[in-house]
TrEMBL record:
The chain crosses the membrane at residues 22-41. Pfam families: DUF543 (PF04418). The keyword ATP-binding does not apply. It is a single-pass membrane protein. This is MICOS complex subunit MIC10. Component of the MICOS complex, a large protein complex of the mitochondrial inner membrane that plays crucial roles in the maintenance of crista junctions, inner membrane architecture, and formation of contact sites to the outer membrane.
Length: 85
């Protein structure tokens, strides 16, 4: 029999996933920006900032959906009153 997980542990796991997702997506965006900057844009810095920002924005959107599932399209929140009917 497993011990129930506390709400603090659930929230901390979500924060850990969000932080890991942020680091991965920002890192990938940074790498893509460096490659694009060197190959296409004569070593300008704006492609690096732009692609890193895209990665951070994607991570933020995923984290927002993790903490607020009502923002996921097609999700329906069922209340106690609706369950008892």
């Amino acid at each position: 029999m497993s011990k129930p997980t506390s709400s603090e542990n659930i929230v901390s796991q979500k924060y850990d996933r969000c932080l890991a997702d942020l680091l991965v997506k920002a890192g990938v965006g940074f790498g893509v920006g460096v490659v694009a900057s060197v190959i296409l844009f004569r070593r300008r810095t704006w492609p690096i900032a732009l692609s890193t920002g895209f990665g951070m924005g994607a991570a933020y959107a995923d984290c927002d959906r993790s903490f607020n599932p009502a923002r996921v399209p097609g999700t329906r929140i069922i209340t106690q009153l609706e369950e008892s009917k």
